[in-house]
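Protocol step 4 of 6: structure prediction from sequence.
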Amino acid sequence: MNLEQLRDSLPDYAKDMKLNLGNVLAQQELNEQQLWGTALACAMASGSPTLLAAIAAEAKTKLTPVAFTAAQSAATVMGMNNIYYRFLHMVSDEKYKTIPARLRMNVIRTHGVEHADFELWCLAVSAINNCQACVGSHEAVVKEKGLSQEQVVAAVRIAAVIHAVAGVVETEKVVAG
């Protein structure tokens, strides 16, 4: 199922998501690489194989192979980091913050795309994964690298809509039996 078919298949109760999905994937605040890298990373983070397949198929036509892999890497490394750093944020014992993470994160420096774009993808995935520490860290970096607050919000809009659509797609599979 391609992305248009998936969007058209969303039920009436998700009409807003149907409209929002089309709108967020056409935002002018982001360039094509930023937009489709964000969409791909967020689709990976949202846990719907059906939505991921549709987004990935479209992203392959919009991203270079390097950017496609970098977006996948952003989702993957943040899947790990968001759990670890969210834990550090939640516990009250400050000693945990002094213990080395000992988690490999080389891809954060070796992804092969614009640093601001990779950080934007990490930020969007971190929003989905509800990691306050990572959201704050990546938001500061993207602004330092020259992205605007409007661009940050555009990426978070993508994250919000893709996450919601993923929930609808997976719910409909269960409800349909």
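Step 5 (inspection) to follow. Residues 3-176 form a domain with the AhpD-like fold (CATH 1.20.1290.10).
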